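[step 3/7] inverse_fold.run input=structure_tokens len=143
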């Protein structure tokens, strides 16, 4: 499970050092792809295969499902971290998420997310109020 917030930096080659706590799960390979809210989703190979299998269940007749799957999969890149735990983020994904040197990596349960640090800070500021006001109707059984 991916938890926490980390602030590594991208190097000049567009590489990111994975948080140490994530390396066991991602060390043998991972998939990077476009995430919603202009971040990059980071999945283990196993989790990406599970998500893909769920997508395959969507009806081919659904335009919205076809559009989502096209955008999601066309941006996907399978990567293997090097011995130092670095992974290269393809330039197309860096551009999509607006990444420069300052990035924030967050744990989101079954995936990690890579954000531009300023964008993450703005998103978090905006959503923290709604977070404190969330009730059972949004997340049944949690409260």
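[step 3/7] decode complete -> sequence:
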């Amino acid at each position: 499970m991916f938890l926490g917030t980390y602030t590594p930096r991208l190097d000049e080659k567009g590489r990111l050092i994975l948080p140490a706590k994530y390396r066991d799960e991602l060390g043998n390979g991972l998939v990077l792809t476009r995430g919603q809210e202009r971040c990059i989703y980071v999945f283990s190979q196993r989790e990406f295969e599970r998500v893909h299998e769920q997508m395959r269940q969507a009806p081919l007749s659904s335009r919205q499902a076809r559009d989502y799957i096209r955008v999601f999969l066309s941006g996907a890149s399978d990567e293997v971290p090097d011995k130092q735990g670095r992974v290269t983020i393809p330039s197309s994904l860096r551009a999509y998420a607006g990444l420069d040197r300052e990035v924030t990596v967050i744990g989101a349960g079954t995936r990690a997310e890579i954000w531009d640090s300023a964008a993450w800070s703005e998103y978090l500021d905006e959503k923290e109020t709604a977070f404190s006001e969330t009730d059972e109707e949004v997340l049944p059984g949690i409260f």
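[step 4/7] annotate
Residues 5-132 form a domain with the Chemotaxis protein chec fold (CATH 3.40.1550.20).
The first strand starts at residue 5 and ends at 6.
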